[in-house]
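ok new one. same drill as before - structure tokens go in, u give me an amino acid for every spot. 112 of them this time. try not to just spam alanines like last time pls lmao
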């Protein structure tokens, strides 16, 4: 079920239907299907493709609530959305967040 929702979100994004992509993403939660990196990255990328930086950032910020670690696709899509609006300071803040997330992942891997 999760793959179906993620595929639908991705298809909406490719068709520049960011609102439909977000509705589908939130419908996934209503159907009690847990989001993962792929579903989040598909939704964030859909927002980025339609130059919607605010919902992209909201999704990125919501990931820890669902115990999902942002991947490079998520970070890059949000940074790209900021770039399209010339919001370099916000892009830099996300870049710093990305670096700290990667560092945390490496620390966790070193403990294995």
């Amino acid at each position: 079920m999760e793959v179906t929702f993620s595929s639908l979100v991705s298809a909406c994004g490719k068709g520049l239907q960011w609102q439909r992509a977000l509705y589908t993403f939130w419908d996934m939660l209503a159907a009690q299907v847990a989001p993962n990196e792929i579903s989040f990255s598909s939704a964030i990328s859909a927002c980025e493709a339609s130059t919607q930086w605010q919902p992209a950032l909201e999704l990125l910020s919501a990931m820890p609530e669902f115990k999902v670690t942002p991947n490079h696709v998520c970070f890059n899509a949000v940074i790209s959305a900021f770039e399209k609006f010339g919001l370099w300071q916000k892009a830099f803040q996300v870049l710093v967040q990305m670096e700290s997330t990667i560092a945390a992942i490496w620390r966790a891997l070193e403990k294995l």
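The chain has one domain: 2-110. and btw The first helix runs from residue 2 to 14.
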